[in-house]
Design a protein that fits this description.
alpha+beta; six-stranded mixed beta sheet; 46% helix
Length: 561
Amino acid sequence: MSDNNDTQEIIRRKDIKKLTISANNDDIASMFQLYQYHRKGVDIGLDAELIEKYFQFCVEYLTSTKNINGIETPVNKLHLRSLNLIDFRKFSNLKMDFNEQLTVYIGSNGAGKTSIAYSVARTLSWLSAGLEKEGKHGKPLTKYDVNINCDHRTEVHSKTSLGKLITRDTALFRYVKGVSDGAETSYLEELRELSDLYRVINDSQKRLKKAEINLPLFAFYSVERSHLKSNKSFDIEKLSNIDSNSRFDAYDGALDGAGKFGDFLEWFLILDNLANPANNPELSKLKRQIVSLEQAASADDSVLNKMLADKKKEYKAIIGSSGNSQFFAKQLGIVKQAIIDMTPSVSDIFVDRTSGRAELKINNDGVEINIYQASQGQQILVALAADLSRRLVMLNPKSEIPLSGQGIVIIDEIELHLHPQWQQTIIQNLLNTFPNIQFIITTHSPQVLSTVDKSNIRKFDKDEYGEDVVLTPRFQTKGVNSLDILSIIMGTNATPDVLEAEWVNDFASYLMDKNKLKAEKVFDKILEHFGKDHPVVNDCRNQIKIFEMKERLLSKGKNGK
């Protein structure tokens, strides 16, 4: 037994020596591991001053920022580097990498864009869970994630970076039924260590009564985010207080996919109460009770006088706590501005209490309307901006600029319900409003791609053996005509395969063959279908003019000879 203990002690000492060497070379993971040993009471033979140095290095590593073009940016930014799917849904083996700031996936229906989004969300759920609580589990893969041809297990491998700290391979597994007995479980140790780094250092700062560190956000918005409940309002006297809520509430439901617009509504209304104490429903209620008691109480009624004194004391306490109203007003202003910046035609968002119930309204092109009277596209953008900004503000409430918080956010079909003109602004608005978030996005829209550099695009394709691959286009997309993107990048003819389009092609062919009579007959059908001032008709007229001009020049040339 003692021999076994001696062997374990030798191994532990070698491990500590190796960690110490790495820590002295500024390796953050080694410093944190040594701090963890010390924190748990393990004798590692290092003095307290050195351990404190390691701890402070960890704090600085997680909190240091730099100014880039006027934006406060983390020195050590967290982002997903790569993913490898094995027997996951339709893919047998697919590898991909991610840009640090923006990655946009494109492909036809059924190509696997949504599968990518879900696999990333599943991976991030383990980081998010570990940040909240040690040992908390994220979302496992399901039996529906297993490829139908798989005879062993489906695997989702990933690598994540936090500055120079790069996790080794981490993996989620799901076994085919009947083969999992005694099999290896998912390998998530490095993800847990990464989330431990944030959680433990934050808890230590909190215990030392020092400023808590900013935490990263992880969120997923699926196509289900369009399913908003209709015209919801709230009883203004039944809203709970958000002042005592945990910052970790920001993670609740963030990776479920749907986004919780109803939660945002309630949170926004409560925040509005805190920012404007005069609107606090509890104060209104207490005022009415105080007035009633004052009218009913007499000098010798000790019971009512005691109740009146208690109510006045309660009223005074609430008034006293309203000293934080400026803090909440600032948070409210940040969220409102994010919504306005993200949503065209919306110039304000506010709470209307005139009906006796609290309703959320917007100023839409100068007209005040209930949020549910807005267009579907506006609702989608408001919901997205609202949920993202709400979670960032909740997660880092003491931050001067919470929207500069970092994190990883997945959005499936970014163009959902958006007018093409808005599709051309959505990406840049996201990057401007949330500059330190890594966005992983899917789209079918050439308008969206026309605003994205080719280096940020990943396209599903097949290699020479017919296997699925993800490629970066060679053709530059940013600033390019949407029709060119539709044709060259997305492999779709800009002209639909319909009879009316064939008329236009036939017309051009007849003119090329110098058969003006047939061209004019087809032109009559084109004119009847498209109308006299249509661009297609005007183009045909121009072709006729050019044809006639060439004929005249040719005729003059022949006569001149």
